Structure formats: C-alpha cells, structure tokens
Amino acid sequence: MKKINSKIASLFICLSLVSLYGCSSGLEGEAKKQMEETMKELAKDPSSIQISNVETKFNNDSICILHFKFRGKNGFGGVSSSEIEYIYLIHTRDGNKTKWEAVRNLDDKKSVLSQAKEDYQEKKWETDNNKNLSDEDKKAWYIHFVADLDMMFNGREIDSKDDDIEKW
Description:
By secondary structure, this protein is α+β, with helices and mostly antiparallel strands. It contains four helices and five strands; from the N terminus they run ααββββααβ.
C-alpha cells in the first residue's frame, strides 16, 4: 500500500511541475488572459468566438504583442475571420503603473511590429533617451515607443477608474 501511495504522490508532483512550467508566465500570461476577455467583450456573440494560432511576437517586462486568428459571428449572423494583433502594455509614469491594451485588425492595418521595424531600419528611432542602449535594447525601446503612440489613438486603459466624466 505504501508503494502505491508513494508512486501516486510522485506522479502527482510530476504532473504539478509540468502544468506549472507549461503555463505562460508573467506578463505574457496576463496578456493572453486579458486578450481572451477583451475579445469576448468585443464579440457580437461571445459564445461563438474561436481564437487560434496564438503567437507571442514580442514579450518583455512591459509589453507583450500577440498575433492570432479570430473567428466569430458578425452582426449579420454570418461568421467572420480576421488576423488580429493584440498589444498589452504596462505604462509607468511617476512610479505609477497602468495597463493598456489595443486590438488591431491586421487585415486592415500594418502591425505595430512591422511599423517599428521599418522606422528602425530608417533610423527614425535615435533619441537622447536611447543613444546609450545596446542594439537589442534600442529595438525593444522603439517597439514600446511605437506601441505607446498607437495606444493614444487605438488603445484603452484596462481597469481604469477614471471613466466617469464627473471625475475629470
């Protein structure tokens, strides 16, 4: 009986470790969870949505960019499919962190990563803020910069408590 219990305990520990390490961690995990919630919120029929081919295109401690295929019922009852870019961004200002997100339909727009790459190759990224960074850090800084700009026009703050116009 003790041998069976120790084997079961060992199996349980192994399965727990595999599931722990198999999950996305940190910002990437947060981004994937928020992306699913946002897509359900935006869908005409949340029960009809299908998210597939999720790829993490860029991820560091303050930004995660995901690309995926989205299918769901449209306003006419048919099924639409789109390639989507989801940007999850932590913006830090004066020590305060806010979380932002943007959803971009790649069927209509260029991805933030493509725009950042083009600009970076044309040397539009050189500023006093980043001139002492390594090339890899400059790329990351510029991707974050382009995503920040995109957030001004296409993004929204997650869990904002300032939505009430009376508080402005």
